[in-house]
Amino acid sequence: MRRKTGSSGKPRTKKFSLSLIVLILIFLGLTAYFLGAAKSWDGASRLTVVVQNISSPPSSVAIPLAIFSIEPKSNQAIFISIPGNTQVDVPFGYKQFPASTVFKLGQLDNKRGGGELLTKSTEATFKVAVDRYYVSDGILPIVALTSGEVVEIKSSLFSLSGLVSILNLTRGDNSQVYTNLSLVEKLRLWNSIRKLRPDQINFINLLETNILDEERQPDGSLIKIIDKDILKTVIADNFQDSAVRLENVTLEVVNATSEQRLAGQFSQILTNMGANVIGKSNSRSKQSGACLYFLKDKKYKRNTIIARVAELYSCKLLENYIQDSTADIVIILGEDFLK
């Protein structure tokens, strides 16, 4: 009887080698996937994303911006819609620009890029920690102007049929997505939003509040100016991380840069995150580096607030620090924080 593999057995050997290569690739892929998952958003703590659709809007309508924040653990989310002609604070020396122009301005900045400039501008203006950005250049609807549109977006994109669009696995609509959300994070975010009821999403359109004042520019165009005092009442507790809030630790923020009021601004971000900031001060000596922190006791090293500032601001532990603060954790902002 004739042997199917031939006398040398090479076909079987080739088949075995191919299977081995496939198994190795699958193993490497799964390893990379789970390593990435370990370092990414856990799907339970708070995640705040700035979102924008930068495709051409209807004539004379500035591209709006939105902040979406969700804490799956408490089944609560907030969606803030911001008119595109709202003046926002743009750091790194840019000063103020309309919200609709910040991402494209950042695309011209080789050091930072559109996503980072949009993230930092949103953070500087609204005093909330922003984890990720998601910007669509196409027809993918991600910014709502009414509570009804929020429900529509949830139904269309955060269902089984909308998963492919959210993951951006196909580009059939010629859209392009700019984001620093990983594949794992997109899956977790999709699943978290899918589970929310519409009444668990607090929708706020700044146009429908008394936060914005209108001002006419010399060229005749209208811009929106944010009343920062009223804004505080809207932000309130909507962006708190429950794990941070429940930690029984106190913080002080020290400004070791040449920029004034930085300690107060950063303290407001931490407070809106749920941290208990009991002091802010200016250092007589300037500090290099971006962000350092000192712990009164090593037991605070595993606290959520430390993990958050380490991830968001690249804060590093300062072993030796002479401090007269009564706070459990001292965060020091250095000159590189401004770069």
Number of domains: 2
Question: For the largest beta sheet, what order do the strands appear in spatially?
Answer: 7-6-1-2-3-8
Query: In the CATH hierarchy, what is the architecture of the largest domain at level 2?
Result: 3-Layer(aba) Sandwich
E-strand count: 15
Average pLDDT, all residues:
85
Distance between the termini: 77 Å
Proportion of β residues? 15-25%
Structural class: alpha/beta
The low-confidence parts are 169-174
CATH fold-level topology of the largest domain: Aminopeptidase
Question: Could you state the order of secondary-structure elements as H and E?
Answer: HEEEEEHHEHHEHEEEHHEHEEHEE
The biggest beta sheet is recorded as: 6 strands, mixed
Radius of gyration: 24 Å
C-alpha geometry: globular
Could you characterize what this model shows?
This protein has two domains: 47-223, Aminopeptidase (3-Layer(aba) Sandwich), CATH 3.40.630; 242-338, Alpha-Beta Plaits (2-Layer Sandwich), CATH 3.30.70. The N and C termini lie far apart (77 Å). The chain has 339 residues and is of the alpha/beta class. Helices cover 34% and strands 23% of the residues. It contains ten helices and 15 strands. Mean pLDDT is 85; it is low at 169-174. The strands form four sheets. It has a six-stranded mixed β-sheet with strand order 7-6-1-2-3-8, covered by helices on one side. Strands 12-11-15-13-14 form a five-stranded mixed β-sheet, covered by helices on one side.
